[in-house]
Amino acid sequence: MQNILFVCLGNIARSTMAEAMFRQMVKDANLQDKITVDSAGTSNWEVGNPPHPGTQGELFKHNIPFDGIKARQIKPKDFDWADYIITMDTQNIDDLMRKAPNKAAQQKIHMAYDILPGYEGKEIPDPWYSHRFDITFEQLSETLPAWLTKIEKELD
């Protein structure tokens, strides 16, 4: 079993979009019994809120369900639970590195684009500011398949 946690600042835009998209990819690959997906935010600003309307609209446009996804803040136990903590920008990385309880937890933290050679360190900007949720969807569509391929190879 592999546990994947997507993290952004508020857990209403990028990480919730990534969670919904990756859940659908896992389902399409018939791997629901082998890969668990969740998301969280580094801040507590949006706890309990549904995904941003822009995120909902983009997911709806692509027929990707987001039922039951509500914003939450990352907890210490998440660092133990997750095999991969996939985040969106350098501020998320910095926040998570400070929150991580130990070196082993820090080694689980990756930026979404780090999976693609030549794109290491590339950020997925927060669409809360730009309102370009379509670009966020495109960027996640570039990175998430590579993460699924990597994780699928590590199963069993």
Short description:
The protein is 45% helix and 13% strand.
Q: How would you portray this structure in words?
A:
It is a single chain. This protein has a four-stranded parallel sheet with strand order 2-1-3-4, with helices on both faces. Strand 1, helix 1 and strand 2 (35-41) form a beta-alpha-beta unit. Helix 1 (14-28) runs parallel beside helix 2 and helix 1 packs across helix 7 (133-154). The protein contains seven helices and four strands. The chain is globular and about 35 Å long. The chain has 156 residues and is α/β, with parallel strands linked by helices. The chain has one domain (2-154): Rossmann fold, CATH 3.40.50.2300.
Number of helix segments? 7
Query: Do you know the CATH architecture?
Result: 3-Layer(aba) Sandwich
CATH fourth-tier homologous superfamily: Response regulator
The number of domains: 1
Order of helices and strands: EHEHHEHHEHH
Question: Averaged pLDDT, please?
Answer: 98
Helix fraction? Answer: 40-55%
Main-sheet strand order equals: 2-1-3-4
Number of strands: 4
CATH topology label: Rossmann fold
| Backbone structural class | alpha/beta
CATH class placement: Alpha Beta
Which regions are unreliable across 5 or more consecutive residues at pLDDT < 50? none
